[in-house]
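User: Please fill in residues for this 219-position structure.
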């Protein structure tokens, strides 16, 4: 009597899932560069497929539409940036502020296409994309507030002061990666000092939020 052994389908299915996730991640990496160099409206799905060297149907399979593809790229880039900038939780408050700014600049320097996609992508007045970008701003504000005040959830005054600083940092960082005339260390020192001015202004208006002592730098 020939009794067939049950087939173990779990491992092939897992391998298929891994390949699928890897393929999706590869398409997102390609898309970061495409949308950083060309505006959203200027790229058709045919253009994307041709430049990515894939069938157009593959992009539809993973992302359903050009908009879905773009949103996946922005969300993936945002997750990377926030994770990178928010590391160093074991450091003292002032050192964490320094680490966050340096991490932000390092990310922008080494992931220029992704950074441009986050800060100045090409969808225009798209409320969902703007919500994603507002989310990354809020995350950076919370990270800086956590480093400066020991808490990420702060009231309107310090939140607005830090948000204004983050928006200025976005524009300055875009210019810096296009024209890297300053070293990253110098750029970081400059942004730390301008943040110090913001934190002192917040303290002057509301003494309940004192500016932290500057981090000691070992040169």
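Assistant: Residues filled in for all 219 positions:
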């Amino acid at each position: 009597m020939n009794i067939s052994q049950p087939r173990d389908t779990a491992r092939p299915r897992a391998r298929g899932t891994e390949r699928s996730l890897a393929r999706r991640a590869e398409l997102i990496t390609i898309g970061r560069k495409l949308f950083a160099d060309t505006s959203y409206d200027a790229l058709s799905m045919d253009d994307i497929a041709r430049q990515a060297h894939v069938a157009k149907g593959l992009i539809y399979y993973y992302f359903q539409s050009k908009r879905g593809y773009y949103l996946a790229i922005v969300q993936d880039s945002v997750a990377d940036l926030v994770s990178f900038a928010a590391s160093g939780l074991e450091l003292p408050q002032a050192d964490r502020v320094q680490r966050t700014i340096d991490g932000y600049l390092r990310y922008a320097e080494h992931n220029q296409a992704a950074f441009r996609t986050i800060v100045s992508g090409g969808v225009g007045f798209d409320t969902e994309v703007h919500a994603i970008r507002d989310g990354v701003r809020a995350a950076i504000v919370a990270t800086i507030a956590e480093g400066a005040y020991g808490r990420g959830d702060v009231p309107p005054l310090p939140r607005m002061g830090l948000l204004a600083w983050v928006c200025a940092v976005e524009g300055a960082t875009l210019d810096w990666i296009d024209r890297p005339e300053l070293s990253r260390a110098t750029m970081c020192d400059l942004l730390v000092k301008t943040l110090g001015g913001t934190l002192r202004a917040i303290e002057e208006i509301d003494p309940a939020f004192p500016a932290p002592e500057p981090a000691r730098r070992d040169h």
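For context: The domain at 73-205 is CATH 1.10.357.10 (Tetracycline Repressor; domain 2).
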